[in-house]
Amino acid sequence: MNKTITTHYIDGAFVESHGHEMLDIIRPKDSQLIGRVMLGDEEDTRRAIAAAKRAFATYGRSTKEDRTEILRRLHEAASARLDDLTGAMVEEYGGVAQFARLIVESGVNAFLAAEQALQQIPLSRSWNKTTVTLEPVGVAGLITAWNANALFICLKLASAVAAGCTVVIKPSELSSVQTQVLVEALHEARLPKGLLNVVTGLGTTVGAELVRNPDVDKISFTGSVAVGQSIMRDAAATMKRVTLELGGKSPTILLDDADLDKAIPAALVMAFLNSGQACAAGSRLLVPRTQLDAVKRAIASAMHAFSVGDPADPTTAIGPMVSQKQYERVQSYIRKGIEEGAELLAGGEGRPRSFDAGYFVKPTVFVNVKNDMTIAREEIFGPVLSVIAYDTEDEAISIANDSRYGLHAAVLGTDIQRARRVAAQLRAGRVVINSMTDDPQAPWGGFKYSGVGREYGRYGIEAFLETRAILEA
Fold first, then answer.
1. Known catalytic residue at 245
2. Which residue of 163, 213, 326, 392 is 20 to 30 Å from 375, comparing CA positions?
3. Annotated catalytic residue: which of 115, 245, 455, 462?
4. Domain at 3-246+450-471, CATH homologous superfamily
């Protein structure tokens, strides 16, 4: 593949970019150039916003039935390109085939999940001479991250469409090929012109214009804390509504009654999820101090299942990092862990043996980590796990909550009632028990620095709605 992308999707058509800056598209598995993309600028963004504003004049008055029909067409159109979307994620991002397929399917199915959730939301309620309606917020700017491109775009789009909003999407420039395949698919859904607009460009240009433009009523962003803070500050100037999903440093609490033969593989799956490039990755494993030696042996024994290799190989568990920059970031954290005195149980610096190209990282496990170490405080976004010992259940809960993040958490143990009791004390937006389970209707979002607001299901749709009351004399 050697693809050059020069268009954006505005007002129902693929139009040539006004911006002229070109960006190379590099394949993570071998650092080879596979294409180029022309980045949009402020003018491209303003054209897309204008198209969305025009479309909202009509679509903002749509009925549930109208929105349901569009969600079904979006699902049908995206489903037809499922294999292409998966292949693009493997090629451009380096997502391993077994996980990329799940991510893409989750994105495609987000349209059906939104349709189901929409039926559960009463858009109008009346009593006496009062009527309360839930109204679409308006034009929504959707800014998405590079680690699950199809999922983020489809999820946010589905919620906005279900609410009656029109959208301008700024996907990550690192996902340009994936975005092109997805938008080509969604174009076949025969949407009203201007309902969906997509401009690929930098956050400092396209993203910034979305945030400051007074014709954009809502921003939904997935990405880093620093960018989220900037969006929140700048959006205040035009009183934009914001939803921010900003990552995590998720704890997994291993209780002393856990079956290590099951719990340790489950903990490693959560730690190395999406090659560690996942905001929900369980990158802190809290274990009873009395079982630390047994846990170390169990981890060493289970690591063989997490093979590093070509992401297209269905047996590969961990693929490359998305870019040279991300590779270097992960390497710097591994060095920092060693410098701060953590014990290296597996992995370490450099590429795995036999890899002399690509952005591959050794899956790395540190033990004897203190919760105040850098590797236990900061989001690494790579396959690096910190094992932290605790003495009591209360201490485990305290360590788990001692983080500026609060997106995701997990509890592993055989006594379900006890696991539920521990889970209920964790300051995280979502807590799973004994596996990385999912529910497309359950809210997704975080406490503290992990963000503002929720996505998925009715919670995600409600984030794009405003409440209006009409009272008669």
1. yes
2. 392
3. 245
4. Aldehyde Dehydrogenase; Chain A, domain 1 (3.40.605.10)
